[in-house]
Amino acid sequence: MVNFFFQKKKNIKINDILVSLKLKKLKVNYPINDIKDLENANEDDITFFNSIKYKESVKKTKSRTIITHKKFIKTIPEKINVIKVENVLLAVSNVTSLFYPDAVNDNPDFELDQINKKNYKNLRFGKNVLVGKNVKIGSNCAIGHNTIIEKNVRIGNNCNIGNNVIIKNSIIGNNTNILDGAVLGKKGFGFFPGKNSNTRYPHIGSVVVGSNVEIGCNNTIDRGSLSNTMIGDGTFLDNQVHVAHNVKIGKNCIITAQVGFAGSSSVGNKVLIGGQAGISGHLVIGDNVQIGGGSGVVKNIPSNTKVMGYPARNIRNFLKDNKFND
Amino acid sequence: MVNFFFQKKKNIKINDILVSLKLKKLKVNYPINDIKDLENANEDDITFFNSIKYKESVKKTKSRTIITHKKFIKTIPEKINVIKVENVLLAVSNVTSLFYPDAVNDNPDFELDQINKKNYKNLRFGKNVLVGKNVKIGSNCAIGHNTIIEKNVRIGNNCNIGNNVIIKNSIIGNNTNILDGAVLGKKGFGFFPGKNSNTRYPHIGSVVVGSNVEIGCNNTIDRGSLSNTMIGDGTFLDNQVHVAHNVKIGKNCIITAQVGFAGSSSVGNKVLIGGQAGISGHLVIGDNVQIGGGSGVVKNIPSNTKVMGYPARNIRNFLKDNKFND
Amino acid sequence: MVNFFFQKKKNIKINDILVSLKLKKLKVNYPINDIKDLENANEDDITFFNSIKYKESVKKTKSRTIITHKKFIKTIPEKINVIKVENVLLAVSNVTSLFYPDAVNDNPDFELDQINKKNYKNLRFGKNVLVGKNVKIGSNCAIGHNTIIEKNVRIGNNCNIGNNVIIKNSIIGNNTNILDGAVLGKKGFGFFPGKNSNTRYPHIGSVVVGSNVEIGCNNTIDRGSLSNTMIGDGTFLDNQVHVAHNVKIGKNCIITAQVGFAGSSSVGNKVLIGGQAGISGHLVIGDNVQIGGGSGVVKNIPSNTKVMGYPARNIRNFLKDNKFND
C-alpha cells in the first residue's frame, strides 16, 4: 500500500542502514526500498524478527535482509542477510526514521490554509476551517468551525465533522460522524526510555475509519507505528474514548464513554464495551463479546463471552462473587 | 415548555404518524401536536408506554394516543387510541424524528457569526468568538477565545465562559463558570444498532445548567433525548467529566475529575463523587451520598450513604474487606 | 521566587488582614509582604499552621505572623504573633485573595493578540495563534493552529506546541512537546463548599514543566494553589491525563492514557503508571514504582515497589488473589 502521509526517502542502500546502526558496512552494497514486517516485506525491503511467535512468518518472508537478535539467528533461513543488533525494536525505530524522517514528531501542518469551497462538492463548512494540501473530501459533507484537516487526509461522502476537530494521517469512509474536539491521527505513545530524554518511536501508520461510524467528542485516536489503527464499519464510539496506536476495532461495535484501549489490541465485530472499561495492550478480543462498564481486561477474551471485573472475568462468576447487600 | 432549540413540524396528523410507522391508516384522521412522555402529554399529544413501572402514569395521562407493545394493551384505559408496535422505542424515535427532523444529527450551526458587542450588556470577550442567532447573554459575562455559542442558547448574568468552549442546546443560570474545552449540548449516545448502520435516536432535550455552577475543562455534557440533562445550582464539576443524556445532578454536588455518568441516572443534592468513579445508567442516587474515587456504582444508593468499590457498596464494609498490608 | 503570573498587591499591613478576617485590629500595625508556607516565609511574610505534622517547620519558620487554630497555639514559638481562627484554610484563602485578587477566577487573558513573528527566534507557527503580553519563547519552537499562550508564559528552546493548546501560568523547559488540545495552568479544583455557592480557593501557583517532556492530547494540568504543579524532566504523559493542583511528578516517568492524579500528591522518578490508574490526593509515591493499569492508589507507595488493584497493593499478591480461569 502506498503511504499517503509520510514521504519515503529514496536511494537508501544497505550500507546507509548499517552506518546508521553503527555497524560495519558490507562489501557488496545493495538498495533497500522500505522497512516492513515479515509478511508484507518484498525482496528489496528490510524486515525484522523479534519474537519466536513469528517463526512461521520468517520462513515465508520474501525479504532478503532481516534485523534480529543473535538468539534468533538459527531460526532464519540461510539465504537471508542477517543484521545482528542488541535491541531489535530500537534498530527498527532507527531504520524507520531513516526512511521516514517526518514520522517521529508531530509538527503541525504549516502549509494548510482556509478551506476553498471550489475544491469540494456540495460541502457545507464553518468559520476558520483549515485544510492541508491534497485533502480529498467526498460529496455532501459538513465541517464545523475551527476544524483542522491536515494534508493528504481522505474523507468519504456524507460525513459530518464537528467543531474543533483535528484530523491528520487518516482515511475516513462514508456516512461517518466525527464529533467536536476529537483528535485523530497523532503519533502514538511509543518511545524508548532514556536516562534524560526518550527516543521517540516513528509512526508511519495511519488511522483508518470505516463507513457509518461515529467518533465521539474529545476522543483521541492515535495513528499506528508500522501498521494502522482501524475502526470498523458501523462502530460507534461515545465521548472521551482513547484508542492507542495499532488498535483494530471491528464492525458494529458499541464503545461507551471514557473507555481506553492500550496499544496493538484487536477487537472483533459486534463487541459492546461499557463506560470506563480499559483494554490492555496486545490482546485479542473476539466477536460478540460484552465487557461490563469499569472492567479492566488483561487477557484475551474468546468470542461470544460476557466479562466484567478488574481483572475482567466471566460476568456470571463476577456477579456471584460480588453479591453485596450492604 | 417551549422547545427553544428544535423547531417542531406543524400540521402532523395521526395518519402521517401511522404511515411513517408503516401501519394502517385510521378512518378518522385527527391532528397530533407533539410527542411527550405520559406525564407531560396533553390531549392532543402522542405518548408511549414501554414499561410496567409506569402503569400509574398511564392511568392518569391526558393523551388520547399511545404507542405501546401488545403485552401492555390491557393496562391502558379503553378510551385511549393504541398504536401497537413491535419495538416501542424505535417507533418513538421515528415519530420524534417526524416532529423534529433536526434533532437526529448534530450539524454545526452554520448561521453563526462573529460576536457583536452591541447585542450584550457589559460583555468582555476574546478573539474569534462565534455566536448563533437569537443567543441571549446576561450582563457582566466574559467569553474566552475561539468559543462557539450556537443559536438560541441562553446564558445568565456574571458567567465566565472559557476558551474553545462549545455550547449548543443549553440554558445556563447566573454566576456559572464553564471552563476551557468543555462541550455542552451535543446529541447523546443513543441509537438502535443495525447490521450495517445504526439508527440515531433523536435528541430534542437540552442541557439545563443552574446558577453558581462550575463545569470543568474538557467536560462533555450531552443533551437529553425527550427530557433534559440537568446540573443543579451550586454544583461543581472538575476536569474531564462526562455526563450522558437525561442525567439529572442535584444542587451543591462536588464531582471530581474523570467521573462518568451513563444515561438517565439521577443524583440528589450535596453528593460527593471521587475521581474516576462511574455511575451506571438509569440509577437513582439519593441526597448527601458520598461515592469513593474509582467506584463503579451499579445499583441505586439511598440518601446519606457512603459507598466505595467496584461494584460500589457500603464504604465501611468495603474497607474492612480490603485491608491489605502488602 | 518572583511570581510571574499574579500581581501582588502592595502596602498591605497586618491590620488590613485582621479586618478582612473580621478580627480585632492590633495596636501596633506593621507591613506584611506576602503569604507563604512555613518553610518559605520570610520575616515580613504571613504564614499558617494547620497540622501537627508540620511542628518541626513551625519551630524553624522565619515568619513572625502565623494564622492557626487555637489547638495548635502551644506548639508555636512565643515570639510569633498568632492569628487565631476557626477555619485556617478559609482564612488562608481570604488572605491570599487579599494579596492576589486575580488568582481566584480564571478569566481568559483579553489582552493577547495574534502572534508577531518578530518577537521570537526561528519560530514556526500556525494560523490564529494568540499570545499574551510578555510571553517568552526560546529558539526553534513550533506552535500549532488556534493555540493560546497567555501573558507571562515562558517556553524554552526546541519545543513543539500542538493545535488548540491553551497555556497559562506555566513555565516550560527545552525540547518539550505539548500535544493537541492540552490545557495547562488553569485554576485547580479547590473551594470551600457553601450552601448556595462555593467560595473559590485562590491559586497563585504555576505549572512548571521540565525539559524533554511530552504532554499528551487533551491533558488537563491545573496550576498549584500556594505551591506549583510540577512535571519533571524526561517525563512523558499519554492522552487524556488529568493532573490536579500541587501535584509533583518526578523525572523520567511514563504515565499512560487516562490516568488521573488528585491534588497535592508527589510522585518520584522513573515511575511507570498504567492506563486509567488513579492516584488519590496528598500521597507520596517513591522512585521506580510501577502501578498497574486501572489501579486505585489510596496510600503511600515506597520506592522500588510494584502495585496493582483497587485499592492498589503488592502486585504479586494481587495477582495471586485474582487468578481467575473463568
List the helices and strands and how they pair.
The structure is a homotrimer of 326-residue chains.
Chain A: E1 12-13, H1 14-20, E2 31-32, E3 34-35, E4 45-49, H2 55-60, E5 65-68, E6 81-84, H3 88-99, E7 113-114, E8 124-125, E9 130-131, E10 136-137, E11 142-143, E12 148-149, E13 154-155, E14 160-161, E15 166-167, E16 170-172, E17 177-178, E18 183-184, E19 191-192, E20 199-200, E21 207-209, E22 214-215, E23 220-221, E24 229-231, E25 236-237, E26 242-243, E27 248-249, E28 254-255, E29 260-261, E30 266-267, E31 272-273, E32 278-279, E33 284-285, E34 290-291, E35 296-297, E36 306-309, E37 312-314, H4 315-321
Biggest interface between chains: A-B, 46 and 45 residues
* Number of separate domains of chain A: 2
Oligomer: homotrimer
| Largest sheet strand order of chain A | 7-9-12-15-18-23-26-29-32-35
